[in-house]
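Below is the data:
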Amino acid sequence: MTIEADDARARIPLQRTAADEAHLKRSVERELHVQFPSVTVDQVKILVECLWSHFEGAPVRDLVPLLVRKQAMEELLDHLGPRAEAMVLPPASPHP
């Protein structure tokens, strides 16, 4: 049996730039506003900014958009009540 050592450089996570983070944040905001049209853009933006700030300084950033989207949806559903569940559309597929 042969054991090959993998390349340590391949395990170094890619660092996102501030522009990458801003783009991901705006993407989450747009998705939430489409799913909850009764909530203003500014309200969605404030919610996303607040939730995103909880992850400032986190060494692993890959799941931040997913975690923020999930928490924001839960908070919006709680805030809007049962009528919101009927409004929520499934997220758009990334591949057509």
